[in-house]
Fold this sequence. Notes:
This protein is mostly helical. It has a domain of 79 residues: Serine Threonine Protein Phosphatase 5, Tetratricopeptide repeat.
Amino acid sequence: MIRASIKRIFQFLMMVFTCLSIFTVLYSQNYTPGQIDNALIIKSENLRIRGQKKELISLNEKYITISKNQNYLKGEILGYINIANIYGTIGDYKNSFYYLQKAEKKIKKINSAYLSAKLYQEYGQVNYVIGLYVKALKYNAQSIYYGKMISNHSEKEILSGIYANRADFLHNVHQDDSSLIYLHKALKIKSSPVINSFIIGETKSKKNCGYASQYITEISLSFK
C-alpha cells in the first residue's frame, strides 16, 4: 500500500517535471522578430480562417508571453489585437474591448503606423457590430490615416481591408455611392474575390450590368 502510494507520488512528480521542462523549452527559446511576426500574422490568420478559435487564442497567448520575455513590444501588441478580434467575432465584446485597451496602452510606447492602423481598424469593426456606426466610421478614419503612413509594401496592404470595412459601414448607413468608391480603393491595393463580389452587388443594384460584367470577368480570372 505504502509502495503504491510512493509510486503514484513519484509518477506525479515526474509528470510535473516533464511539464515544467516543456514549458521552459518553449518559453526560454529565443525567437527572432520575424518568427514572432510570422506566427502572429500568418499562422494566426490561417487559424482564424479555419475557425479554430481556441487554438488561435492559445497561439497568441503563447507569443504574447514570448514577446514579453524578449521585450518585443510589436509581438505583444499584435497578440492583444488578434485576441480582441476573435472575441469580437464570437460576440464577447467585453473581452474584445479589454484586449484592445491593453494594446492601446502599449502602442503609446512604440511608433508604428502599421500597429496603429490595425488597432483602430479593430476598434471600428467592434463598434460597427454593436451598432455604433458613427464611432465605427470615426475609428475607421483613424485607421486609414495611419494606414497611409505605412512605408512597408506588404504591411500597407492592410489598407485594402480597412477600405473594404469602410465601404461596408457606409453601405449600412445608405451611402452607397461612397461605399462603392471605397470598394474601388480597396480593389486598387489588393484584388480579392470578396471585394469584387461586393462591387458586383453594388453595380447590379444600380442596374449597371455592363460595369458589373467587367468584375464578373475579373473574378473568373482570379480563380484560374
